[in-house]
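Before the break, one more example. Copy the sequence into your notebook; we will annotate it together after we see the structure.
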Amino acid sequence: MHKEIPEKDMVKKVAWGMQELIIQDWYLNDQDRSNKLLFTEYLNLKEVREYWLPTDWEDTVHQKMLSSMQGNRPFHDWAIEIQSKNTLLRDTDSYFTDVYLKYHLESHMNPHLATDYHDERITEHDLHKWINKVKVLDNKHLHNVAQHKEAADAVWQAGQEDHHH
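Here is what the structure looks like once it is written out:
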């Protein structure tokens, strides 16, 4: 969070910064009680979740995480997206531990990256360090894909020029 704002003043500062007028109104209606909470307590209030989120939000977020595949996007972007969804699930039964998060990312990464990953034998156990090591590997993979595409485009372009002459 913001280091310069004391934890006891965080709810007050953030609630005023929310763009939705209805959220500001909700805060103002219970301002004294809300201001006494630490920011993490405010965000984790059962009533905040019940008021602002659909009743099946936990299952929806969990299913989106479970079905999410890296596809062709950069690994790091996808890993951050999965971690963001997981943060929403904190203090619920659906929350992924770091170990489970790593297993999920391993088993749903791009197949070409997975081949390179298994060849590389990355043994890092800290999730964030592990993600950064896989990111480096993925950047090499994405660079190779871009080079192959450039080469294929050059061959195609040369074929087009020969065809027109």
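The mean pLDDT is 80. The two ends are 63 Å apart (CA to CA). Try to locate both features in your own notes.
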